[in-house]
Design goal:
Strand content: 25-35%
Order of helices and strands: EEEEEEEEHEEEEEEHHHEHEEEEHEEEH
Shape: globular
Number of strands: 22
Largest sheet: 12 strands, mixed
């Protein structure tokens, strides 16, 4: 079965507390002058604000929002613990340093408009997504994207010096995405699939009122995106309600396929296909999947210690969501058979557990890889951690 890998690194929170008011002042690290219009927000939420003319800010964080990112164009971003900004008897000062343009030892090559358009299309597919809702997302400022292809032309790296602004009127969000890392690798040995890893700090802004959008339709769209999502699954794990919510889990592992052809054989198959216009080469899977004979429940996956919920499993975890089907386009693009369920796979990429929280966030999200249908879902269909499916926008 063809799989898509997308390791999406969500910003997470290491401790939790109830609503807390934070405040402070943002200054230039060199001149000590206040910075007006600096952005301050809890990553992956709709909760944030901006500094006034005196560089001051003040707003309230909700439960599990324990970090804030402070950004200003031309300055390095700063991620700080919310607790450091919560003292009502003291004005916290955050200093931002101007970005220093360091010369990098890279081979600079001219990129044609055609090449840039090709890379932009790859970035859209792998970062925004190809789902019916994700494809409605527009990049407001594509000119800020910088693309670099390695010598073998197998790895596309994308950077941006300022936040990427995304708008999707179907979801009713404008997302300012501070991209830290994006890499998309073409796997020649695996039918030229894409293996994509990206990391960043998204901030969500409601645009329903300002654009006069239909709130009822947007509410339905958000609920559709939520059902079966990684956010939905993590909340279900935390609440011990996976079965009730429609999720089943089963552990499995990959084992090498003894019938997998050599690289030389694969190269000959592709060469024959291109030169003689033969049928598309049927290359067997590199691994054989072996599932555990029984399904597992939350108690077998989560260890509760000192009011913390720690998630861990060896090898891989198969997650099936029974209350919705996979999109037709996903089935077509991945040469799958249509079914009644959404099928995904998860893997914890180290030997240590990760903590899960009530709002669906996780600690050290860079260690949680998503495959299958959850992996196919990208930023264009992302919901903030403070999304509540029971509340109409």
């Amino acid at each position: 079965m063809k799989q898509i890998l997308s390791i999406v690194l969500f910003i997470s929170l290491s401790k939790s507390f109830s609503q807390t008011k934070i405040s402070g002042i943002v200054r230039d690290g060199t001149t000590k002058e206040p910075l007006a219009g600096a952005s301050i927000f809890a990553p992956n939420t709709t909760n944030g604000g901006a500094t006034n003319q005196e560089g001051l800010f003040s707003f309230t964080l909700s439960e599990h929002q324990n970090e804030v990112l402070i950004t200003y164009v031309g300055y390095d971003n700063v991620l700080v613990p919310a607790s450091s900004l919560a003292n009502p008897n003291q004005t916290s000062v955050i200093y931002l340093n101007p970005v220093v343009n360091q010369l990098k030892e890279v081979v600079i090559s001219k990129m044609s408009a055609k090449e840039r358009e090709k890379h932009l299309e790859t970035f859209k597919n792998e970062f925004i997504g190809r789902g019916k809702i994700a494809e409605q997302t527009k990049i407001v400022n594509p000119e800020v994207l910088n693309f670099q292809l390695n010598t073998e032309k197998t790895i596309l790296t994308t950077t941006a010096d300022v936040p990427i602004v995304l708008i999707n009127e179907k979801t009713g969000y404008e997302i300012s995405y501070n991209l830290v890392f994006f890499e998309s690798k073409t796997l020649k040995e695996n039918n030229f699939q894409k293996e994509t890893v990206y990391f960043g700090y998204p901030f969500f802004k409601e645009i329903i009122a300002e654009r006069k959008l239909n709130a009822d339709k947007i509410s339905k769209t958000r609920q559709e995106l939520y059902k079966g999502s990684i956010l939905h699954f993590m909340r279900s794990l935390f609440n011990n309600s996976c079965k009730k919510e429609g999720f089943t889990m089963r552990k499995f592992k990959y084992e090498p396929n003894p019938n997998y052809p050599t690289e030389e054989t694969i190269s000959k198959m592709w060469k024959d296909y291109k030169e003689n216009k033969r049928s598309y080469p049927e290359i067997p899977s590199k691994y054989i999947i072996t599932h555990n004979p029984t399904y597992c429940n939350e108690e077998q996956l989560i260890d509760e210690k000192e009011n913390r919920k720690l998630l861990y499993f060896e090898d891989y975890l198969s997650v099936v969501y029974k209350n919705a089907k996979e999109e037709t386009k996903y089935i077509f693009l991945n040469h799958l058979h249509a079914g009644n369920f959404q099928r995904s796979q998860l893997k914890i990429t180290s030997s240590d557990p990760i903590e899960i929280f009530k709002n669906g966030s996780v600690s050290q999200p860079q260690r949680l890889a998503t495959y299958g249908y959850m992996g196919w879902k990208k930023v264009g269909e992302l919901l903030p951690f403070d999304y509540n499916p029971e509340v109409t926008p």
